[in-house]
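FORM 7B: Structural annotation worksheet

SECTION A. Query
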Amino acid sequence: MEKRQNSIFLCGFMGAGKTTLGKSLAQELGWHFLDTDACIEEQHGPIPQIFAQHGEAYFRELEAEIAQKMQNTEKTVVSTGGGFMMSPKVQESLNNQTVVYLSVDFEECYRRIAASERPLVKSNTKEALFALYQHRDAIYRSVCSTVIENSGKTQDTVQEIITQCDLVRA
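SECTION B. Predicted structure
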């Protein structure tokens, strides 16, 4: 089945620039922008609080619900959380969507997230985060439509996504 081009899901490790790049891509295309973490926080409260009160498994179920609801979105750039693509339910929901993996070197991601309040950053060592990065990298690569290196200027990466995914501005 042919991949639909009416929405783009950006995946990648924490600190890969999904939200920043997603906003720029949406603006360039004249599309809507959604951030899955922001959607969850809007409905359920801060993510660290969700993790603390209900655990990671519950949070992943909330992500799966969002993926299900977004199956038929149109002209939308969706920035996903770092673990969003780990769920088989999410992968199935997005099977016919265009998924772009924003690949960034671990050291660069770690530099961007080290001082953050992200639950997985606060509860893991750098070594454990690197192991998580390696595990997720393999999954991102297996579920994505295309891999885009996000290590240069935002505008250059935006243009590369538009070209690679054959996107049309609104």
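SECTION C. Observations
The mean pLDDT is 91. The chain has nine helices and five strands.

SECTION D. Sign-off
Analyst initials: ____
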